[in-house]
Specification:
alpha+beta, 3 helices, three-stranded antiparallel β-sheet
Length: 64
């Protein structure tokens, strides 16, 4: 049986943490930044975890 292919787009955007959770970057940091406050932009730099209910789906997409 051949190996399952992972989705390249998902593999580039999501990583697994040491505890096998899926890590992602936050959205809304690419443009129209003048109206966003410094605090908001600073918070958007950080990574966050994928919603628990969707985690299994993302793990399958990144092939692990």
């Amino acid at each position: 049986m051949p190996k399952m292919k992972s989705r390249s787009a998902a593999r580039k955007r999501f990583k697994l943490t040491a505890n096998n959770h899926v890590k992602r970057k936050k959205a809304n940091k690419s443009h129209i930044l003048n109206k966003k406050t410094r605090k908001r932009k600073r918070e958007l730099r950080k990574t966050t975890l994928v919603f628990k209910g969707m985690e299994q789906k993302f793990r399958l997409m990144i092939g692990s």
